[in-house]
Write a structure and sequence with these properties.
Elements: H1 38-46, H2 51-60, H3 65-87, H4 89-93, H5 97-100, H6 102-105, H7 111-140, H8 144-161, H9 163-190, H10 207-222, H11 241-269, H12 275-286, H13 290-324, H14 331-350, H15 356-385, H16 407-420, E1 425-429, E2 432-435, H17 437-441, H18 448-463, H19 469-483
Antiparallel strand pairs: 1-2
Helix pairs in contact: 1-9, 1-11, 2-3, 2-10, 2-11, 2-15, 3-10, 3-11, 7-8, 7-12, 7-13, 7-14, 7-15, 8-13, 8-14, 9-12, 9-13, 10-15, 12-13, 13-14, 15-16, 15-18, 16-18
Length: 494
């Protein structure tokens, strides 16, 4: 059985230079997180270069600026709801998100959604590396290979130092980048950033383009779901769930909507084909070097987000290994895992030849299809089936009440994924593309993830009717006694 408590505890009220915790439970004495840190963390998580090309997707399909912004606001709103509700699980349970998923899928069964989750982390960092290389080359003429190497090393270092340093880095970058982007946006609104239309494309409205923009925007924040609670698990267990949800929702949605809308404007009014170069041009039109500074710090924020992805990927890999063969999650294991992941995403990015918009759209679409059945299962279980009550100790044992392979979660996941296939509209990946037969019948409009969400949730609720809650309540009591936290892992009042 995996050690629930680390053999090297952090000192109360302080944190070590390199984080001690990885996939183990965080006891109350180490819950040094602060609620106000959540909003700036997730604001900057989307206040970077990756958000801008998402605004290019609708216009690339002929969607007008107004409709692109509407689709983006609705999509971000939907996606962030899922993300924010996952965040509320961190203080309640003090666990990484995917360890908690053992309750739905089983001690070893969780490997199935873990594979999808690991793909998400790697896909994000592959796409981020491509975006940084293309953007900084277009903006400053810098060598893409050198950029990729430096970004990979910087992201790996940030992930190795861990939770606290990621929070600090994001806050510093936010303090610098926020005023720059505010001035640039004022320039856009007042007309001093240029614009006026540089394209012969007739922009308007089609359902296919609208739903593509909506789905990409929703996917953007849904893809944070597997690791959002990793950054809230150090909050005290008595932190109110509604406060965490509100902080994360505001932070993650406001910055994403802001920059996606700006990206749509750059694509339509400036004819930009690269988000960073467009940002640089618009800013420098307002006044000299504003665009240079905005582009540079937007790129640095994206590199910091790569560190966040590397940290989450490390937790996913260690959870996968631990689910197959229990391990002691040491600092050495964390560092080695992060370095291996760094090499993997760097090599994969070096093979990508697609333009940045295609890379972003393809990555987000695939991630959305894979993650929706997991998020539906997890949130349905947490809020409607078990209602936040779990036997924490049993999540670390193959002999716990959650079993080795939990058929309920695995079958619901499979049903949701299978239900998506006829409705999928996959963008071009290399020379291959796919549109499902039912998607063709509705004019190529992508509703696959909505179908997957509904079917997974319904299936899991039905399957969970056979759960014996009396046995689970007894296990929860034993777990609380074993952990010695006197019920501090029970849900906060909402």
């Amino acid at each position: 059985m995996t050690n629930i408590k680390s053999s090297v505890p952090a000192l109360k009220g302080s944190a070590p230079l390199i984080e001690v915790r990885s996939i183990d439970w965080v006891p109350e004495s180490e819950r040094h997180g602060k609620l106000w840190h959540q909003a700036p963390l997730w604001f900057l998580g989307n206040f970077q270069y990756f958000s801008i090309p998402i605004g290019f997707i609708g216009p690339s399909l002929g969607l007008s600026l107004g409709w692109t912004i509407v689709a983006s606001i609705l999509g971000i709103g939907v996606g962030t709801i899922f993300m924010a509700f996952h965040a509320s699980q961190g203080p309640t349970m003090g666990l990484p998100q995917m360890i908690q998923s053992r309750a739905q899928f089983g001690y070893r069964g969780v490997v199935v959604p873990l594979i999808a989750t690991l793909f998400t982390y790697l896909a994000f960092n592959v796409a981020d590396t491509v975006l940084l290389g293309d953007g900084l080359m277009s903006s400053f003429g810098w060598n893409p290979t050198a950029i990729a190497v430096i970004a990979a090393l910087g992201a790996a270092a940030l992930a190795i130092f861990g939770h606290d340093w990621l929070h600090k880095a994001f806050r510093v970058l936010l303090y610098i980048s926020f005023p720059l982007m505010t001035i640039l946006t004022i320039g856009v609104l007042t007309g001093s950033a240029g614009g006026g239309g540089h394209s012969t494309i007739q922009y308007g409205f089609t359902w296919g383009a609208f739903m593509a923009q909506f789905a990409a925007s929703a996917a953007y924040n849904i893809t944070y779901a597997p690791y959002v609670s990793d950054y809230s698990r150090y909050l005290p267990s008595k932190t109110k769930s509604r406060s965490v949800i509100a902080a994360v929702f505001f932070g993650a949605s406001s910055s994403a909507i802001w920059l996606i809308a700006l990206g749509a404007w750059l694509a339509i009014q400036l004819g930009a084909t690269d988000g960073l170069a467009g940002l640089q041009l618009a800013g420098n039109n307002v006044f000299i070097h504003l665009g240079d500074a905005a582009a540079l710090f937007s790129a640095l924020a994206l590199a910091a987000t790569m560190g966040m992805n590397a940290y989450g990927g490390m937790l996913t890999v260690l959870t996968t290994i631990d689910s197959i063969r229990p391990i002691n999650p040491t600092r050495k294991a964390r560092v080695i895992t992060i370095l291996v992941l760094t090499v993997m995403w760097y090599l994969a990015a070096s093979l990508i030849s697609s333009d940045s918009v295609t890379t972003v759209f393809s990555a987000l679409t695939l991630m959305l299809y894979l993650l929706v059945p997991w998020t539906a299962t997890n949130l349905t279980d947490y809020f409607f089936v078990r209602k936040g009550h779990y036997a924490i100790a049993d999540l670390f044992s193959t002999k716990g009440i959650y079993g080795t392979w939990s058929w309920r979660g695995l079958l619901a996941f499979a049903i949701g994924l299978a239900a998506e296939i006829p409705f999928m509209v996959l963008p071009q990946i290399g020379s291959w593309t796919y549109t499902g037969p039912l998607a063709n019948l509705i004019g190529g409009v992508d509703i696959a993830w909505l179908v997957g969400l509904i079917m997974t949730s319904i299936a899991y609720v039905i399957f969970s009717r056979s759960l014996d809650r009396n046995i689970e309540h007894a296990a929860e009591a034993r777990s609380e006694h074993q952990l010695g936290h006197n019920g501090q892992a029970t849900p906060a009042n909402t």
